[in-house]
Design the sequence.
């Protein structure tokens, strides 16, 4: 039987560079890396894993590691779906949808689904469409609560 086109991998130290590179690519193409981005991307073990979160990666049979996202608990018990990106070279393979579904499934299995949120920007229309397709809805209360951590965020779901 052939290897699946896309596979899911958990975080390991060897993939920390991919976590940084994939996210830096999409963020710098549309916005600017903020201090908070740099801190999280440079310290994924301390800022996500050690706090009880997870980082997932999607691997393509042809291209290797092509996407990533994280589920990051905060001090109040809410879970942020964050740092989700797919390399430009891998667009069109449905890797983002594959990754988002895996993150949502993990949130359900972990009992986090009711406290799951994300922050984004209206310029990210393709991402917003994907989030809506998978059950996320805009929520101003979430924006008021969590939005200030990034300057670029103007949508909370």
Sequence:
């Amino acid at each position: 039987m052939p290897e699946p086109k896309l596979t899911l991998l958990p975080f390991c130290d060897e993939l920390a560079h991919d976590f940084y590179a994939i996210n830096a690519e999409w963020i710098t193409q549309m916005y600017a890396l903020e201090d908070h981005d740099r801190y999280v991307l440079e310290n994924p073990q301390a800022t996500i894993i050690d706090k009880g979160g997870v980082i997932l990666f999607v691997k393509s049979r042809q291209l290797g590691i092509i996407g990533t996202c994280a589920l990051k608990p905060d001090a109040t018990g809410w879970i942020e779906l964050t740092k989700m990106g797919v390399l430009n070279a891998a667009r069109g393979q449905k890797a983002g949808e594959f990754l988002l579904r895996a993150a949502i499934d993990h949130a359900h299995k972990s009992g986090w689904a009711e406290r799951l949120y994300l922050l984004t920007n209206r310029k990210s229309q393709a991402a917003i469409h994907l989030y809506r397709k998978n059950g996320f809805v805009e929520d101003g209360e979430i924006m008021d609560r969590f939005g200030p951590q990034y300057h670029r965020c103007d949508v909370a779901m």
